[in-house]
Specification:
By secondary structure, the protein is mainly alpha-helical. It has helices at residues 15-22, 26-34, 54-66, 71-78, 89-116, 131-134, 148-156, and strands spanning 12-13, 41-42, 48-51. It has 2 domains: 1-87, Multidrug-efflux Transporter Regulator, Chain: A, Domain 2 (Orthogonal Bundle); 101-157, no CATH class. This is Redox-sensitive transcriptional activator SoxR.
């Protein structure tokens, strides 16, 4: 069977082909489409068809999600370009640099968490044996809510 092409001459994929080639379940593809992250057209039989470039968009979404970037942020970054478009090197550079500061901050926080896992992080629970030494009478509560020691450590890194 010959590959279907859209009016622009770009190869079109069924939702099943996209799921198989991207490794993403069909339900997730429906979700991405409902959120405006990817777009499909309908053929004469009212079946979804995706341009083959959607595979690149899905790969970007998957990688960004794996690094912890929220879908709303991914949508905002990808929304600067037409759906299913082939990003140029410059466009990809713009998108990735917009995420860089956020990722660097997450890395600092994760490193601080990793280095503090065996110690008090200043959460105010007073339940660990060394909390009375690191946070006697919950004095860190005066600095504000949350893991004060961990937040200080992530800011230093």
């Amino acid at each position: 069977m010959a590959a279907e092409k859209n009016p622009d001459g770009v190869r079109s994929l069924t939702i099943g082909e996209v799921a198989r080639r991207s490794g993403v379940p069909i339900s997730t593809l429906h979700f991405y489409e409902s959120k405006g992250l990817i777009a499909s057209t309908r053929n004469a039989g009212n079946q979804r068809r995706f341009p083959s470039l959607v595979l690149r968009s899905i790969a970007i979404i998957k990688v960004a999600q794996r690094t912890g970037i929220p879908l709303e942020e991914i949508k905002r970054a990808m929304g600067r370009y037409p759906p299913n478009s082939k990003l140029t090197a410059a466009q990809w550079g713009e998108m990735s640099s917009a995420w860089r500061d956020n990722l660097n901050e997450r890395i600092r926080t994760l490193e601080a968490l990793r280095d503090s896992l065996d110690n008090c992080i200043g959460c105010g629970c007073l339940s660990l044996n060394d909390c009375p030494l690191r946070n006697p009478s919950d004095t860190l509560a005066q600095e504000g809510p949350g893991p004060r020691i961990l937040e200080r450590a992530s800011q230093r890194i």
